[in-house]
Specification:
Layout (H helix, E strand, L loop, with lengths): L1 E8 L2 E8 H45 L4 H37 L6 H25 L4 H4 L27 E8 L4 E6 L9 E5 L2 E2 L8 H11 L5 E7 L2 E8 L6 H8 L3 E2 L6 H16 L11
Parallel strand pairs: 5-8
Antiparallel strand pairs: 1-2, 3-4, 3-7, 4-5, 6-9, 7-8
Helix pairs in contact: 1-2, 2-3, 5-6, 6-7
Length: 300
Amino acid sequence: MGFGVGVGFGPVRVSGGISSRGCSTLIVGMLALGAVIYVVRLVANLVSWFFAWPIRLMEPETRSWGLDAVARAAVTWAAEGLWVETLLLLAAASLNGRGVARLYLGPSGMKGSSRFWRFWSVLLFPVVMFATIGMALAPEPGGGVSPPAPAASPAPANTGRERPTQVPQAARRAVVTDILSGDQVRIGPATADGASKAAVARLLGLRAPHGSACGAAWAKRRLASRLSSGGLVWVLTRASSPSAVYLWNSDGELINALVLKDGAARAFTVEVGRSMRARFQAYEDAARADERGVHGCPRG
């Protein structure tokens, strides 16, 4: 038994068919192909889980620690590097245990102190390498939205209710209720009860002096001149650290950059995305060269 199909074109007729046995073979073949694909995907998922479980484990854990994206990526990838090194060490030890011992502890005649430093250097090398890779691959703040540089010339003033073109779409409107130091402000939502919901926020990418340190009072006054209390601003936070922010004023100027340009703080570029590190460092270098603000204070 089987079935056939025929098509006629005048005197020419084309026909074809398949037997019941051929049909059964086709069905079995399709089922077998589906089973093979399923098994391959299952094995691939198991292998991926086996090698990448430290990343899956550490990612939510580091979020609970309040780390920013760069630090979170460094810790997560460092854990992955330690796991990969452990697997390689076990495999190598099963094949050549003496060779592994020489790699980590050096030759038999090496001094004890040299063995100690050699062991930790070899052990931590892949961990540091993976952590560096993780930091390089860390996402930009605000889900990949990179804040632009402050405007070279003042933009037309507005009330702050219209979003300036320089401000990312991910930024939200807020109001400054107090200025606490050269790098800390208290901000709340731009609503009627915003002051009652205000929280302390720190400017990302910089560190200003506090307390009685040299330049602390001046840095606070300088930030106040850039960011008047009660004024509307635009805020971009990070999911991993909501208290660390980028701030724009109503004219679309990035306050973090202006503070560094004024010399009211020193750059702390380890917590900002790759696109901002060189920019922030350049602002600090220029201020230091002119000994502006805190850069005129003695170090040490």
